Amino acid sequence: MSLRGKVAVVTGSTSGIGLGVARAFAAEGADIVINGFGKAEDIERERAALVADFGVKALYSGADLSTGAGVRQLVADAEAGFGRVDILVNNAGIQFVADIVDFPEDRWDAIIAINLSSAFHGIKAAAPGMKARGWGRIINIASAHGLVASGQKSAYVAAKHGLVGLTKVAGIELANTGVTCNAICPGWVLTPLVEKQLHDRAGKNGTSFAQEQEALVAEKQPMKQFTSPAQIGALAVFLCSDGAATITGAPLSIDGGWVAQ
Ligand code: NAD
């Protein structure tokens, strides 16, 4: 168990990729801070499952990461519960699809706040403690859309490109402190965020959910298959291992060949 004794905060881990990453860290022995929204009983079930399945400690913080104060609250909750933060995964994210000329200003602001600014505030709050202890891992969950663009996703593409840029700057600034900062750039992962998009497309196109699912991966990815949250978790665990000690400032694709084209 390579992460026994470490404390990992995973933002947006009540669902999807964040939950997969939290479970992968717990399987390696890390204590976990879960964050995000959802039904209280579902969150408690996931929290209890981490404890029961892997014998680690797990606490939940419902901090809303759309403001700097909310992000600082999350780090404070982790420090109050476990004394420190060793691993920070900036994963919480939202999405909205519309042409720029029709894009609602409040959706733009919310996407930039949650998908980009929350990572800035998280690094600001958690990196000093990591530096002082001489070890830390910061992992930003960006996207293939952090490296290439698609239409109708202006705020998301801008936020994810920004997150890749922030990752590079943090990697440089934290070099030689024992703290690394990297970005994981997934292609399609079947999570509630993507399921909603598929239902919307099926409704608009008069197709089935299964047809839209097949069309989605075929459209962009040479490997016409989804990546799983567990596979994202495995890459995150690798980034916390000794083998990854000199990887920093790097956007790492896990996208079935999407951005290779
Ligand atoms: P999801 O909708 O399943 O999960 C998002 C999580 O973020 C949830 O736990 C939600 O409660 C939380 N969240 C949303 N707003 C929040 C806020 N204000 N404060 C705190 N938590 C908040 O989505 P997902 O597909 O698992 O996506 C996770 C991350 O991965 C996102 O950053 C997304 O952009 C990125 N990503 C997803 C895919 C994909 O295909 N699913 C691909 C590339 C990148």
How would you characterize the overall build of this protein?
The chain is an alpha/beta fold. The chain has a seven-stranded parallel β-sheet with strand order 3-2-1-4-5-6-7, sandwiched between helices. Helix 1 packs across helix 8. The longest helix has 29 residues, at 105-133. Helix content is 49%, strand content 13%. The termini are far apart. The structure holds nicotinamide-adenine-dinucleotide. Residues 11-12, 14-18, 35-38, 64-66, 91-94, 114-115, 141, 143, 186, 188-189, 191-194 line the site of nicotinamide-adenine-dinucleotide.
Give average pLDDT, whole number.
Answer: 97
What portion of residues belong to β-strands?
Answer: 5-15%
Query: Which descriptor suits the 3D outline?
Result: globular
How many helices? The count is 8
Bound molecules: nicotinamide-adenine-dinucleotide
Order of helices and strands: EHEHEHEHEHEHHHE
What share of residues is helical? Answer: 40-55%
Radius of gyration from the CA trace? 18 Å
Tally of DSSP β-strands: 7
Poorly predicted regions are none
Strand order of the largest sheet: 3-2-1-4-5-6-7
Biggest sheet character: 7 strands, parallel
Determine the structural class based on helices, strands and strand pairing: alpha/beta
Q: What is the rounded distance between the termini?
A: 37 Å
Name some characteristics of this structure.
261 residues; alpha/beta; 7-stranded parallel beta sheet; 13% strand; globular; binds nicotinamide-adenine-dinucleotide
